[in-house]
């Protein structure tokens, strides 16, 4: 079985010096059948702006080295909270030249681009609007993960290029500020975008619940709202230690497939969710 993953944080773990402990180690991912892995560079949620820039720059450079060594074959580079990239919106052409093909505006908190999902609810700023338009001109996909509703709506309206939510669940299945409302899900679908459902406990299931079954419920909800060809996996591996029992690493992909089978997904539908939809999105919007 092949599969694809719209969001992993292996670059952050590697930058911290813990690659051997990474759940989303590219060798392990490929060995488990992952044919495409998105690796996000993240400046972190602590330290000065200069320190965050340095972390993000170092992770982008690390991806470049991995690509030259063949370790990042079948991988795509993203920015998580693009406001941390050196030069912010003015630095996006440089990021694109270094291989970045998708970027989110925020992390959980507010920043120079707009409101994060756990911030004060502010909308897209003037700098954020410039960033959104710059991404569109470059052909860089706009990732609306972590954005608060006001920033999400304005960025969606202003977008000139491809749009996705690389890692978020469905609020109607499990309430969390990071998860998407029905309107947000439908908006991404109508825009021709993609939604990756994560494995993180705090987004999909209470502690002690059946993680694979609950993950499948989020997928099912998106399909029920018209997202049959727009939903897939955005695991968030290495982005959190809060992972449901049994689906902690790449070798547990079979449990996710079984959970989809248990709710009536045919083999073709299961393969679309686990790989086909993300691969089709990447090809359709020319990200690779």
What characteristics describe this protein?
single chain; 288 residues; alpha/beta; eight-stranded parallel β-sheet; 11 helices; globular
Describe this entry's structure for a reader.
Helix 7 packs across helix 9 and helix 9 packs across helix 10. The protein is α/β, with parallel strands linked by helices and 288 residues long. The relative contact order is 0.14. The two termini are 22 Å apart.
Shape: globular
End-to-end Cα distance: 22 Å
Structure annotation, total helices: 11
Order of helices and strands: EHHEHEHEHEHEHEHHEHH
Q: Report the radius of gyration as a whole number of Å.
A: 17 Å
Estimate the strand proportion. Answer: 5-15%
The main pleated sheet reads as: 8 strands, parallel
SS-based structural class? alpha/beta
Low-confidence stretches: none
Quantity of strands, as a count: 8
Strand order of the largest sheet: 1-2-3-4-5-6-7-8
Mean pLDDT reading? 95
Topology diagram in text:
Elements: E1 3-8, H1 10-15, H2 26-31, E2 34-42, H3 49-69, E3 75-80, H4 92-97, E4 100-104, H5 126-138, E5 141-143, H6 149-158, E6 163-165, H7 182-190, E7 194-197, H8 201-204, H9 211-227, E8 231-233, H10 253-262, H11 267-284
Parallel strand pairs: 1-2, 2-3, 3-4, 4-5, 5-6, 6-7, 7-8
Helix pairs in contact: 7-9, 9-10
């Amino acid at each position: 079985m092949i599969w694809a993953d719209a969001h992993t944080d292996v670059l952050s773990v590697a930058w911290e010096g813990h690659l051997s402990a990474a759940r989303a180690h590219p060798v392990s991912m490929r060995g488990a059948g992952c044919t495409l892995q998105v690796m996000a560079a993240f400046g972190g949620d602590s330290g000065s702006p200069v320190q965050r820039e340095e972390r993000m720059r170092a992770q982008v450079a690390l991806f470049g080295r991995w690509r030259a060594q063949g370790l990042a074959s079948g991988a795509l580079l993203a920015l998580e909270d693009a406001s941390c990239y050196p030069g912010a919106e003015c630095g996006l052409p440089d990021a694109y030249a270094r291989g970045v093909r998708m970027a989110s505006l925020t992390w959980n908190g507010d920043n120079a681009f707009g409101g994060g999902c756990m911030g004060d609810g502010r909308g897209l700023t003037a700098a954020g609007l410039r960033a959104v338009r710059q991404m569109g001109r470059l052909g860089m996909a706009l990732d609306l993960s972590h954005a608060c509703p006001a920033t999400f709506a304005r960025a969606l309206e202003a977008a000139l290029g491809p749009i996705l939510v690389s890692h978020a669940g469905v609020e109607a299945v499990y309430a969390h500020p990071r998860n998407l409302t029905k309107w947000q899900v439908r908006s991404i679908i109508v825009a021709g975008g993609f939604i990756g459902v994560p494995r993180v406990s705090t987004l999909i299931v209470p502690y002690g619940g059946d993680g694979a079954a609950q993950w499948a419920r989020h997928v099912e909800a998106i399909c029920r709202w018209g997202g049959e060809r727009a939903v897939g996996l955005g695991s968030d591996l290495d982005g959190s230690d809060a992972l449901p029992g049994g689906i902690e690493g790449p070798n547990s992909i079979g449990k996710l497939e079984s959970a989809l089978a248990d709710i009536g997904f045919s083999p073709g539908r299961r393969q679309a969710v686990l790989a086909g939809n993300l691969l089709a999105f990447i090809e359709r919007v020319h990200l690779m």
